[in-house]
């Protein structure tokens, strides 16, 4: 995962390729490699202790180990993003990479680091997921990318960059999680769930845009009235 993130970061940073295109392309490549290696079969040959990461609870409690790990990582990255110089530079690059570069920020280095960290977290997520189900298939986690984008945008993260908080993403994950849980209790089909998640993504992207347009129009009207 870490090497894959580094590879993506290299292509985006030094070859000037669009990040979304690189991400989707390499996702397809890695999925194809998995299909070539596994076919349509599931591999279940894992050590007995491997299930600890995704199935065990903190000793003496009913709190899953993976949830505690999630909270720890959230606090760590929340601190980095909101309380450190590195975090402020990330937001500056997200707002305007060219301005950040002219202000002395090493944009390329930070982008490479970000992609590498993302790859590492993706690898860690894969360990937790396979540990929970104690199997791996070539189509595992298919469709999760849309859910993740939805919960991130619902949490207030801007698609164009420069806006958003870790705490907002946490709330977005709770919202999507409870929504899926509720739809599951209502025995709503997976197809309809996908439609609902996609609709939420459109709404989450559209509402901030409409709000910005409303504020801009209101500002123009006030300026016109003052003349």
Question: How would you concisely characterize the structure shown here?
Answer:
This protein has 227 residues and is an all-alpha fold.
Structural description of this entry:
With 227 residues, the chain is mainly α. It has 2 domains: 1-140, no CATH class; 143-227, no CATH class. It is 74% helix and 0% strand. It has 10 helices and no strands. Helix 8 packs parallel to helix 10 (190-226). The chain starts with a helix and ends with a helix. The model has no long low-confidence stretch (mean pLDDT 82).
Descriptive labels:
10 helices; mainly alpha; 227 residues
**H/E element string?**
HHHHHHHHHH
Helix/strand-derived category reads mainly alpha
Helical percentage: over 70%
Residue fraction in strands: under 5%
Number of domains: 2
Question: Nearest-angstrom radius of gyration?
Answer: 21 Å
Mean pLDDT across every amino acid position: 82
> What global shape is seen?
globular
Number of β-strand runs:
0
Distance between the termini: 59 Å
What are the segments in which pLDDT stays under 50 over at least 5 consecutive residues?
none
Main sheet?
none
The number of helices is: 10
